[in-house]
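Lecture 7 notes: from sequence to structure.

We start with a single chain of 452 residues. Read the sequence below before looking at the structure.
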Amino acid sequence: MSDFDLFVIGAGSGGVRASRVSASLGARVAVAEERALGGTCVNVGCIPKKLLVYASHFRDEVEDARLGYGWDATLPDFDWPTLIAKKNAEIERLNGIYGGLLDNAGVTFLPGRAHVEDAHTVSVGGERHHAERILVATGSWPFVPDIPGRELGITSNDAFYLDQLPERVLVVGGGYIGVEFAGIWHGMGSRVTQLYRGPLFLRGFDDDLRRGLAEEMRGRGVDLRFDTNVTALAKNGEAIRATLTDGSELEVDQVLFATGRRALTEGLGLENAGVELGVHGAVAIDSELRTNVPHIYALGDVTDHPRSMDLTPVAIHEAMCFAESQFGGTPRKPDYEGVPCAVFSQPSLGTVGLSEAEARERYDVEIYRSSFRPLKHTLTGRPEKTLMKLVVDRASDRVLGVHMMGPEAGEIIQGFAVALQCGATKTQFDATVGIHPTSAEELVTLREPVAS
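Now the structure, written as tokens:
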């Protein structure tokens, strides 16, 4: 039996960061992972998704060059297998980098499925290890609703490894993953239908962004259907026939279930240690990432914090707080206020702080909003709009939220997240000189609030 100060279960972004930093602070650390190093983000999430988003933009870029900028451009053929092969090579490179990071930090890497035997014992491959502390960082897994024919659909895990680009796609779900893959496949030439069971997708985001993105996606040709769901799938020759809640049927070549994710705790053995699990198997934690069992902790997507916090940088932030608190002598709790995020939809969304609806529940607010055609499209004629929005506390003048829909929204909002973290006021925004001509300058030139 091996002895460790810390045993981490899961080598995703959070688990790897907690392992490395804890080891650098003098802890004896082991980490177990049954799949590829890097977790969801590196293998079937943020990184490959963004690479596919880049690929899907070129179709519009070629068209814009022809329409507005004097290039005698014709749309070349697109080869999906080439893209996937390139993507796979990059992911394998990153897997190797993660392995090197663990090795260089002196972390013991144990490939295989970990099983918790008791509050201080974890087994991997039949070998038992004693640990003073256990950190659960196993992440989450796609959820597929229990409907007839569910096995005919795929999840985002599979979407990154399809042999061919589907000609007709049905995307079921209205969160990040569904919206982003709808844009990816549409940009590559697929005919895309997206369903969402509620009246408007991307629940939790500012309503102006949600409505604006729906309008833009429909304008690009995505068939968005709200208040609609799928009730059954069936084979129809080589195609898939989907039956919808309104009684209609749709024939497609591929169905993507982007219907949420569940904490990956089944079969982990946490019950042997008495760890409390919440809804759908999520690990219950307190503000310091502790479970109900002393010396067992959890972070990232496997925990019961709000699903809106299922973000790689949040898991990394939690990992830093854990390592510094446990082994660095500097107790620190994760801070979830003002977490910026982006949706790499087409056009993309970026947001930080409170939405208008959230702010109105707590403050007397002023809203500043602007919608305009980007300078680039004054020549292409494309009707795409960019949306900028500020939510301001009338009493203190503090900016509570910054929201954007448009090209490079994530890049722009990242900078404004720093301003909000520093407590910036609308007066300070107004006193900032803009960079002209840019879209971002709009956020420091908004002068008149919209009507309440």
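The mean pLDDT is 97. Keep this in mind for problem set 3.
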